[in-house]
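Q: I'm building a small set of examples for a reading group on sequence design. Run inverse folding on the following structure and report the sequence directly after it, with nothing in between.
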């Protein structure tokens, strides 16, 4: 992806101690607000977060930098935090791949006077993070489980693919999902961790399908998991027999819905996560932490961005809602005939 290289180049320049954002500020000018957003793994999902960050950058007049490691990579997240602590940036919003491991460096940033927040995946209890902005992952996992339970009234075996065994969003989604299907005749297989590597996700999806010829359903916890299941199901000629519920609305997932391989996806509002993460740090600088939390209607230091369940039946409506809010998306339903309208 085009931005990944830019991030690494930027990071290297920073490591060379030159600074990528504000090196040329004259001492007479007020210090610019510099906000760093650290994601989890290169994926169109994080490109959407970045679009929100860019929109806030332009509209709110702050400087932003975004860094996303190739895959789930705790060491790269820690190293990036250290780099920007040394730079003395204003704020850092991070999606911690391992909240325990990241807390030490998050504390270090806070002690250096940097505003630390989290997005997409929460921090540990009692963290220095001033606010979490993102999905209520337990609830969203429950919604996914309830949706799959409706698709599988007779139950059956279900495979689960996810990209982390430490990130709280993956753990909470799985927990919500398992809670929703408890008491049904759905039998979950143990979740498989692919470390956010789409190629590994495809291999594991294919192995689960061949090891379980009676597989009835699949749950994709992260953005690339739905498309991985969809490809494996098409290769196994099991379209329609294995029901798929997943997360997010990247182009591959929408294509899966259009083709009738993916039954439903829980769409997060990642553009808003990026935008609001920048917005709240700016507000905290200008008005103070509590007034900023109040103005943005945080409850218990959480701003829940919400989800939408997208299926072939409401895909057009969902697209229209995104368009009405000016939220960019690369896919389109133009030229696509929804299944109900098919002859
Ligand atoms: C998750 C992110 C993750 C992404 C990976 C999303 O569903 O919220 O944490 O990095 O999927 O593709």
């Amino acid at each position: 992806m085009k931005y990944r290289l830019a991030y690494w180049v930027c990071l290297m320049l920073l490591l060379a101690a030159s600074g990528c954002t504000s090196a040329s500020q004259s001492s007479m000018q007020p210090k610019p607000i510099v906000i760093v957003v650290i994601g989890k793994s290169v994926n169109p999902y994080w490109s959407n977060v970045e679009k929100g960050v860019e929109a806030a950058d332009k509209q709110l007049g702050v400087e932003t930098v975004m860094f996303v490691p190739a895959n789930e990579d705790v060491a790269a997240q820690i190293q990036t935090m250290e780099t920007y602590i040394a730079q003395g940036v204003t704020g850092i919003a991070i999606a911690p791949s391992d909240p325990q491991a990241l807390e030490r460096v998050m504390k270090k940033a806070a002690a250096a006077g940097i505003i630390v927040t989290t997005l997409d995946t929460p921090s540990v209890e009692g963290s220095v993070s001033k606010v979490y902005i993102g999905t209520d992952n337990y609830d969203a996992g429950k919604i996914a489980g309830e949706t799959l339970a409706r698709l599988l009234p007779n139950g059956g075996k279900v495979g689960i693919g996810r990209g982390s065994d430490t990130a709280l969003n993956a753990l909470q989604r799985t927990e919500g999902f398992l809670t929703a299907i408890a008491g049904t005749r759905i039998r979950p297989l143990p979740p498989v961790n692919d470390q956010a590597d789409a190629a590994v996700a495809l291999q594991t999806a294919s192995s689960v399908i061949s090891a379980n010829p009676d597989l009835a359903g699949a749950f994709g916890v992260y953005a690339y998991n739905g498309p991985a299941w969809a490809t494996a199901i098409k290769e196994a000629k099991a379209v329609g027999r294995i029901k798929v519920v997943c997360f997010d609305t990247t182009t591959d997932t929408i294509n899966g819905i259009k083709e009738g391989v993916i039954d439903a996806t829980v769409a997060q509002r990642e553009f808003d996560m990026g935008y609001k993460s920048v917005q709240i740090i700016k507000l905290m600088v200008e008005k103070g932490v509590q007034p900023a939390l109040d103005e943005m209607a945080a409850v218990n230091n959480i701003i829940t961005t919400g989800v939408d369940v997208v299926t072939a039946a409401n895909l057009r409506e969902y697209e229209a809602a995104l368009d009405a809010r000016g939220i960019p998306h690369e896919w389109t339903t133009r030229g696509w005939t929804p299944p109900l309208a098919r002859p």
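The longest helix spans residues 270-287.
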